[in-house]
Description:
Helix content is about 35%, strand content about 20%. It is an alpha/beta fold.
Amino acid sequence: MPSNPIIVQKYGGVCLETPARIRAAASSVADLHGRGHRVVAIVSAMGKTTDELVRMAYQVSPHPNRRELDMLLTTGERISMSLMSMALSDLGVPAISFTGSQAGVMTDGSHSSARILDVRPIRVREELDRGRIVVLAGFQGVNPLTKEITTLGRGGSDTTAVAMAAALKAECCEIIKEVDGVCSADPRIVADAKPLRQLDFASLSEMCFWGAKVLHFRSVELAHSQNVPLVLRKWGRRATQHASDEGGRRHGERKSPGRQLDGSH
């Protein structure tokens, strides 16, 4: 098992919005594990949980303390990770859940919009080598100086997944969402928008920077700088969309080692 390839998968909130969907996601993760892969599953909060938590915070206080808001919002992903791990165990698959801090996601001290400075996945590697699936709460980390819990802002679970894939030198990072990858235009506005099956990182980064919501801009920049093969997959489908570098490098291929992980991506 220690020599088997690692795949990092990230499941968005819509994929996890009900217990039935969590069980379905767990079944998919278990299938990948059964085919010989070591798997790290990054999870978002269920459905609209984060929005509901933000709404409650502002009902309590018109100006919520940013530190306490981070403490509140991280509970959404903790619910998802625990339920996913329970579902995997019920399928007879060994699994363990970790918060961002337990998984070694180190950030700066900016509450609500922290940047990842380093990833030290010591416990994650140990559990993968024991044959367990690791279920990790996305969107969160810890500042190593203050020991305070932080959140990465909207789309932060995408960034968590890419950062963890880079640290573990994973075979690829799969972003599993409710939409069918990136389209040539917003399909809600342009009727004949077409899915783009392969994109170079520069094009994908520019699209996300200017508002394409399928991926967080920071996660694309990080995938590019760290040479992480990035795959977008619609929930329930095996069809994939690959992001490659300017030379047309496809899913599963790597260039020479990239720059150190830092807080600018």
